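A.,

Following up on our hallway conversation. Structure tokens first:
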């Protein structure tokens, strides 16, 4: 690369910026591996807790490891009173991702030992904070949805697994097993995806030796955008705009004519379909059957087929997860915070990895402003 004619890759498209042992996204084989395991196998057989453990530790837990891990996670699920007060002070006109971002900041400001420190052992420094955030994000997300409906905080239950407790704290009861299972699958699929925009944001912030909470707060900000995690919310908005399957084609033609991006379709890395979609679509199908809502699947399929015909672009994970979260009873604006609650496992695994072999992330740019000039 010469200074005169540097190769510029807008959006870092196709640029390999570092190595990672956490996950591998393989568009050629349409596969996604977490620490070597296909995500479909993990989604079929593992709890979200086991997957978070795998991402952080590099191996699946044995029985004793899992028991100890679950005890730690279940023991820290409740929110401190000042975090709840901070949430209460935020107007309900604020987006739930803004609430989540703020609540994580408050948790970080409460941690008297928030700095990375000497970095002799990044895992030892980051892991307890990562686990605390993983345990507390459901309480923030659930409470925020409830207060918007005038409902009180529901205390966590330590006899429930992560997914069941999350739903219990949101809805005040644990729904049928089929619903809990679809929710668990979504969390496993959302947990990790290599150097996506929010994870890269977390790594950039970690690379300056800032702190875990700043890195996670920044990642939440990056995830909020509709080109990234915000798309699951935007999918539902589009479904509501369309209304029914018979209107999907006309809606799409209008949207494309006005140069709109169709949310939940396309991907920077997968150009021939997102490896996670079939698994999440199968879970959506179980929900459609459970709630007897074939209209949802009809609309899903109609828009997917129209998009394939018009643009040849396939859905990403946000496409099936949006309607799935809607059927479960989550508010549309709560969808991206659910993504964040799962992805905090991946973000923090990457923060540990970044710190374990750190280099300040600071690329170059080519200047194209005015030539040197001087004050008159
Ligand atoms: C879990 C996740 O975060 S997955 C991503 C979630 N985001 C979305 O669903 C938002 C909608 N999708 C998009 O905006 C894009 O597909 C992105 C941002 C995800 C990927 O973008 P890129 O890799 O930069 O692809 P790019 O934007 O260059 O698209 C290539 C072409 O396909 C078109 N295209 C890509 N996605 C879409 C879409 N969803 N709707 C309409 N056209 C699209 C682009 O307009 C572009 O067309 P052009 O060459 O005529 O200009
Ligand atoms: O990898 C990406 O760019 C976006 C994505 O699918 C994810 O973060 O899950």
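Then the amino acids I'd put at each of the 376 positions:
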């Amino acid at each position: 690369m010469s200074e005169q004619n540097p190769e510029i890759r807008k959006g870092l498209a196709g640029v390999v910026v570092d190595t990672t042992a956490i996950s591998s996204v393989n568009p050629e084989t349409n596969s996604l591996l977490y620490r070597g395991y296909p995500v479909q196998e993990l989604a079929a057989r593992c709890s979200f807790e086991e997957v978070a453990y795998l991402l952080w530790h590099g191996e699946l837990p044995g029985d004793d490891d899992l028991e100890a891990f679950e005890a730690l996670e279940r023991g820290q699920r409740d929110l401190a009173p000042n975090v709840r007060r901070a949430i209460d002070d935020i107007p309900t006109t604020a987006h739930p991702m803004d609430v989540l971002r703020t609540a994580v900041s408050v948790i970080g400001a409460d941690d008297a030992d928030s700095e990375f420190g000497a970095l002799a052992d990044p895992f030892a420094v980051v892991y307890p904070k990562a686990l605390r955030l993983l345990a507390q994000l459901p309480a923030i997300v659930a409470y925020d949805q409830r207060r918007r409906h005038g409902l009180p905080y529901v205390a966590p239950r330590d006899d429930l697994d992560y997914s069941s407790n999350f739903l219990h704290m949101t809805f005040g009861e644990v729904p049928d097993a089929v619903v809990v299972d679809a929710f668990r699958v979504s969390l496993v699929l959302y947990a990790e995806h290599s150097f996506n925009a929010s994870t890269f944001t977390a790594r950039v912030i970690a690379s300056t030796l800032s702190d875990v909470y700043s890195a996670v707060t920044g990642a939440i900000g990056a995830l909020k955008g509709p080109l990234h995690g915000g798309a699951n919310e935007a999918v539902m908005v589009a479904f509501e705009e369309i209304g029914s399957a018979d209107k999907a084609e006309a809606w799409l033609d209008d949207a494309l004519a006005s140069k709109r991006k169709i949310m939940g379709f396309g991907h920077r890395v997968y150009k021939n379909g997102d490896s996670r979609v079939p698994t999440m679509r199968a879970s959506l199908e179980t929900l459609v059957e459970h709630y007897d809502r074939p209209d949802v699947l009809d609309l899903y399929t109609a828009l997917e087929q129209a998009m394939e015909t018009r643009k040849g672009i396939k859905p990403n994970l946000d496409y099936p997860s949006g309607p799935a979260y809607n059927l479960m009873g989550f508010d549309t604006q709560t969808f991206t915070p659910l993504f964040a609650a799962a992805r905090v496992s991946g973000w923090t695994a990457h923060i540990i990895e970044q710190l374990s072999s750190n280099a300040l992330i600071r690329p170059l740019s080519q200047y194209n402003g005015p030539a040197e000039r001087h004050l008159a």
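The longest strand covers residues 23-26. Curious whether your intuition agrees with the design.

B.
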